[in-house]
Amino acid sequence: MQRSIVPFYARDLHVLFITSGKGFPYSPLDNAVGQTLGQLVTRLTVLTPKDDIVGVAARDRPTLALVLDGLDFPVSKIDALRELGIRTAIWFTDDPYYTEVTAELAPHYDFVFTLERNCVPFYQERGCPRVHYMPLGVHTADFRPANPPHAIRRGDICFIGSAYWNRIRLFEELLPRIARRSFKLSGLWWDRLSDYARWQDRIDLGKWMGPVETAEQYNAHKIVINVHRAHDDSTFNRNLYNIPAASPNPRTFEIAACGTLLMSDNREDLAQFYTPGVEIVTYDSAQDMADKMDYYLAHEDERRQIALRGLHRTLRDHTYTSRLSQLLDLAMMPLA
Known about the structure:
Layout: E1 11-18, H1 27-40, E2 41-47, H2 53-60, E3 64-68, H3 75-83, E4 87-92, H4 99-105, E5 111-114, H5 119-124, E6 131-133, E7 155-160, H6 165-177, E8 183-187, H7 196-199, E9 203-205, H8 211-219, E10 221-226, H9 250-257, E11 261-265, E12 281-283, H10 286-298, H11 300-317, H12 320-331
Parallel strand pairs: 1-2, 1-3, 3-4, 4-5, 5-6, 7-8, 7-10, 8-9, 10-11, 11-12
Helix pairs in contact: 1-12, 2-3, 6-10
């Protein structure tokens, strides 16, 4: 797919963008990155891992081949691109949860970008000379303030995401403390809750929403919770190296971009992106979260001011336009 309309600020680059190829739920991320790249470069070609990537690259000679995720993309094709003299880069989207796999992929690329700061030295130790910390961001075409349909304006508190075991433990403690509130949970595996029958009328079980519907729910609630995955959950992860996670997940930026109050667990790097108590609210336990929910639901002006400051910071610093501009600048630095 080649863009025919070239923005005046576009870099004079031809980027070959290779999507994750995984389908939903990765397809919105593929689309967000692809659409943003189309605004930043003079020519963009978008292919999936199943396409004739080497043939297209040999014919069109792109300046840069950028691979998203890369877990379904054979490294033999990357090696072939490098043999053609084409610069290559990968952006890992799930670090550190699949480092058993990504450790084998990373050395095949000229540039490695990871959304997890703790993975930078990990890849460097495996012989990758150019590794950069590059968190994901937000696609504001999907996540932005909006007036949700009246039917879904359910009230106070919302969490959307899969019920990993660390989340189950947190919500087992939290839900009795907020039982009087209007709240919504949505996602896979929430029937793992020991008292699921008590809460099931407030849970959309097994539902996996796309970005538009997710953003509607964020806009429909006063407080949206963020709970990061645990790095050491062997049930789901392939993190044999046990690399701890310090960096914020994409949901952090997506919630804040909707202009609602983000209430997040306090990952080590979070304060680099938002000022706690000013642009977002953080918690360190279920009781702490419940207490802060009571406070901000009773102090509407403060809640709105923090949410608006979080929105402003997101639009200024954390969009995909910002992230990909940085990524392209770094990926075009000299290889020597």
